[in-house]
Specification:
The complex is a heterodimer of chains A (292) and B (275). In chain A, helix 2 packs across helix 13, helix 3 packs antiparallel against helix 10 and helix 10 packs antiparallel against helix 13. Chain A is 75% helix and 0% strand. Chain B contains 13 helices and no strands. The two termini of chain B are 32 Å apart. Classes of the chains: A mainly alpha (292), B mainly alpha (275). At the A-B interface, helix 1, helix 3, helix 4, helix 5 and helix 7 of A face helix 1, helix 4, helix 5, helix 6 and helix 7 of B.
Amino acid sequence: MKKRKMEWGLQTFFVGPVFIFFVLILIVPFLLGMYYSLTDWNGIAKTVNWVGLSNFKTLFTNDSNFWESFIFTTKFTIVGVVLVNVVSFGFAYVLTNALKLRNIMRTVFFMPNVIGGLLLGFIWQFIFIKGFDTVYRLTDWSFFGLAWLGDPTTGFWGIVIVFVWHQAGYLMVIYISSLTNVPKEIVEAAEIDGANRWQLLRNITIPLVMPAVTICLFLAISWSFKIFDINLSLTAGGPYKSTESVAMNIYNEAFQNNRYGLGTAKALLFFVTVAIITLIQVRVTKSKEVEA
Amino acid sequence: MKRYTGRTLILEIGMVLVSLVFLAPFYFLFVNSVKPFGEIMSDAASWPQVFQWENYSKAWSLTRFPEAFTNSLVITVIGVALIALISCMAAYRMVRANTLFNQIFLLVLVAAMVVPFQTIMMPLIRVISELNLMNTKAGLIISYLGLSTPMAVFLFHGFVKSIPLEIEEAATVDGTTRIGVFFRIVLPMLKPMIMTVVVLNTLAIWNDYLLPSLILQKPDLRTIPLATFSFFSEYTKQWDLALPALVLGITPIIVFFLFLQRYIVEGIAAGSVKG
């Protein structure tokens, strides 16, 4: 009896704080969100009216902005995830060679990552508007002369560029630590067997770093699918909502249109989508992992 | 490591060029932050003709930088310390007392890591205001305690499992209490993972914009991202003020990074163990 009491005390002492904050900050709001998605809550009024599934009906039949933002986010995720992984793997692959400046270069590639997305977006707003303009005048390369951030296409690619610049360093760190763990004997054995550099990369290195690929894809997908900060400070969703991400659409629905009920309905759908995508991705890439 | 061949040299030169492209935005940011407005407009690429440092003193006072810096610092330090502490305590207990409750709780925590912030954002604000914690640093810190602990507990959980039980048993025989065993023996051994959790959460909390923007609406509570945002909306296109404000905004975290680079990079590599 006494022992049981002590176990209770220890459990409360050690796990209690996390449990309380977790329930208060995540579980309660999550359940409340489910309830609010079935109401017409506007965020201010104390009374909320039950409206059944009508928010979801509006969402699926009468909210083209939301679906446009969904398509934008999906496109952005596909392009962003592929590019950021290719770039960061490339950096890691080259910087695991015996380059003299490799430590400095690792620092350089990682540095943008420590800066918050909001400030980065503002910095790049200046680069796209004034910096590119000046480079265009100096070099006459038409790439820099485009109306950057002024139309949907350059807005999209602008966000992609900043996203890759921001996150490549983080994934590079993960790829570097995975590449340095590839057993030397296997690589040497393959070299003796006459494998060229490309065959080595394709048939030895990449299969052995698949666990890192799983993680990096997972991270890149969740960052890009939930993109908000860079989006807000770089284009604010413009021009004409053409670069509005799902996260921003939800934000605007709640805090600009004051339709919290509809906002929470969108947010739940967003959660389900994120959960399904990440589950599928982890399943698929995990099945491609091999043991050394 | 392999020899330094001609191929390595070509790689080296190529990578240096790529690094310069990567650094170019910082160059544009710094040189233009000290130029008068006219010069920024006429030529954004050249080295400044004169260094107009007043840009910085104006941005410093207009963004109320010292205040924003202090707010960011207080929130980040307290938040991160509490997250690390309560998470490693919970993870320790959950490994050592493998009850059904603790097993289920771990699963729920891991599942919660997938929930996007937007999904709970609106009801969370309701909860915080019901607790009368709107416009308080405590309200923000408490939110971080709930939002960041699942990942931290998960990381510590994996780490505690690798600590042999014998060391603790020896201490218990010596008469140390079970709580004492944790603080005197286990906690010091958790140091590498504590560094990881501290690094990841420091970057996340310091740079966060969305949650503080919802909870802290009074100007004197603004953190650096909030101060930058409101400054930028007010002085749009006034680059001679906006750019020095941005430089001020990124300087603390860049300094933090350059000093603790080794820990940060190790922390990220260690924090990405797959679940």
